[in-house]
Design a protein that fits this description.
By secondary structure, this protein is mainly α. It has a domain of 76 residues. It is 70% helix and 0% strand. It contains six helices and no strands.
Length: 115
């Protein structure tokens, strides 16, 4: 087993002492969490759960906060500065975007009069 030494703020150190022997478990669980925050998935799922019309689907876009984060990730990626966690986050954004593009493409037939 590898020993790692970290400098952490006093408040965090107190919390880490409280979890004691569960620290390895908690770190492992935190690393397995989805890269995107839950509210990002919730935003997309809540929208899809409304059974949006083709027009609503075509108009769907990420929140300004999501757009800003995506812009940051893309800039860091272009500069070659992404951390592994940020790369996973960017991948998740790309998967969601791909899903939305596919849904929008399917909705296009409604705009062309193919009902």
């Amino acid at each position: 087993m590898v020993k790692i030494t970290l400098d952490v703020p006093d408040e965090l150190a107190e919390q880490l002492v409280q979890v004691g022997d569960r620290l390895v478990e908690l770190v492992t669980l935190s690393l397995q969490q989805p890269a995107l925050p839950a509210h990002t998935y919730r935003y997309v799922l809540d929208f899809l759960a409304t059974n949006p019309s083709p027009e609503e689907l075509a108009a769907f876009k990420p929140t300004s906060q999501m757009q800003q984060r995506l812009g940051t990730l893309l800039a860091r990626s272009k500069a070659g500065e992404l951390t592994p966690a940020e790369a996973r986050e960017l991948d998740d954004y790309e998967h969601i975007e791909h899903l939305i593009v596919l849904l929008k493409a399917g909705a296009l037939r409604f705009f062309d009069g193919e009902r």
